[in-house]
Design goal:
Number of strands of chain A: 7
Oligomer: heterodimer
Order of helices and strands of chain A: EHEHHEEHEHEHEH
Distance between the termini of chain A: 50 Å
Structural class of chain A: alpha/beta
Number of domains of chain B: 1
Largest sheet of chain B: 3 strands, antiparallel
Structural class of chain B: alpha+beta
CATH architecture of chain A: 3-Layer(aba) Sandwich
Strand content of chain B: 5-15%
Largest interface: A-B, 72 and 62 residues
CATH class of chain A: Alpha Beta
CATH topology of chain A: Rossmann fold
Helix content of chain A: 25-40%
Number of helices of chain A: 7
Shape of chain B: elongated
Radius of gyration of chain B: 16 Å
Number of domains of chain A: 1
Largest sheet of chain A: 7 strands, mixed
Radius of gyration of chain A: 19 Å
Chain lengths: ~210, ~120
């Protein structure tokens, strides 16, 4: 196939796939967690610290999410804006692979959120306590645009981050009751995995509530 | 504010690659959906376009659509549309199509797997 530029690693050594581009053939399904937060808060750092592949960057077009092609065709000056999305993956068991998608937090990307939130386990909200006000927009967005999506807050600890107790932070961020708040160093795989665990535990607890 | 790092324009409009469509033929395909060439394998029709061929070739082994999009240097939304067509025509198969909410079993398997990594 002439144009099929393929992800070769495909020398077929072994069952795959740590380090390889393809997944093990035993994998039966995928799950998805969104990593959200203000610009520069460390989303891609966290994804990179836990991902088994170098984080990949893809592009999503805003116009296909929000406006039909006819509208686009009729508006010669409208730009087909694309947004970069960084993502990584963790094969958590022989059957299950987890994808982590970093979601840009800015208001103009809201349309994109709804599409990506569909089918997600939940969202991990990264917060920088030095710029806490930048998290308000993201949390507001979660509560209005992706209502019902479980989320947990993880403070990305920078060396000069002021210390806030979890309660104080929950208060400052006006979080819904029982929203987990944890902290991590996004560069540290173990801490980042723990933050993800906190979120999944919360998602499981949410399921117990009869709907 | 944003930087150009998260935000840019492309010269080729995505709808050129999808025959003018913005919406896939099925809504069960998402960026994290796993796809692989269907078995028994059958060749693409001669009328298949460049994007279909590239995606079909990419999917000879299992991977997600988001990954396929990166390697093909195409927007995910375009690859979703092309993949939907290839699923409809029986060339690609999807593992556990999206649609249902995440089940308790999947959450538990996920939690168990993450705890082993921590």
């Amino acid at each position: 196939m002439a144009y099929a530029s393929s992800p070769d690693n495909a020398t077929d050594t072994g069952p795959s796939s740590t380090g390889g581009r393809y997944l093990a053939e035993t994998v039966q399904r995928s799950a998805k967690i969104l990593v959200v937060g203000a610009f520069g808060v460390g989303k891609t750092t966290l994804i990179g610290s836990v991902s088994e592949i170098t984080p990949l960057r893809t592009e999503e077009t805003m116009t296909t999410a929000s406006v039909g092609v006819d509208d686009l065709a009729g508006l010669g000056e409208k730009k087909a804006t694309t947004v970069a999305l960084d993502f990584g993956r963790i094969t958590v068991s022989p059957r299950l692979v987890l994808y982590l998608f970093g979601m840009p937090g800015q208001r103009r990307f809201w349309d994109l959120w709804e599409g990506l939130a569909e089918g997600a386990v939940g969202a991990l909200v990264l917060v920088d306590t030095r710029r806490i006000e930048q998290s308000f927009e993201v949390l507001d967005q979660l509560e209005t645009h992706t209502a019902g999506l479980p989320f947990a807050v993880a403070v990305n600890q920078f060396p000069d981050s002021p210390w806030h107790g979890e309660d104080e932070l929950a208060d400052a961020l006006d979080l819904p009751p029982r929203t987990p708040v944890t902290s991590c160093d996004a560069r540290d795989p173990a801490g980042s995995v723990k933050a993800l665990i906190t979120l999944v535990e919360h998602a499981l607890a949410n399921q117990k509530v009869p709907s | 504010m944003s930087s150009t790092d998260e935000y840019r324009d492309r010269p080729v409009r995505p709808y050129v690659l999808t025959g003018g469509r913005a919406v896939p033929s099925r809504n069960t395909i998402r960026p994290e959906t796993l796809v692989v060439a269907a078995l028994p394998s059958k060749p693409l029709p001669v009328s298949a376009g460049r994007t279909e061929r590239a995606l079909f070739g990419m999917c000879r082994r299992l991977l997600s659509l988001a990954e396929a999009a990166v390697y093909l240097e195409l927007p995910v939304s375009v690859v979703v549309i092309v993949a939907s067509d290839l699923v409809d025509s029986g060339h690609l198969s999807v593992r556990t199509p999206a649609g249902a909410p995440v089940s308790r079993e999947v959450l538990e398997e996920l939690l168990h797997g993450l705890r082993k990594l921590a």
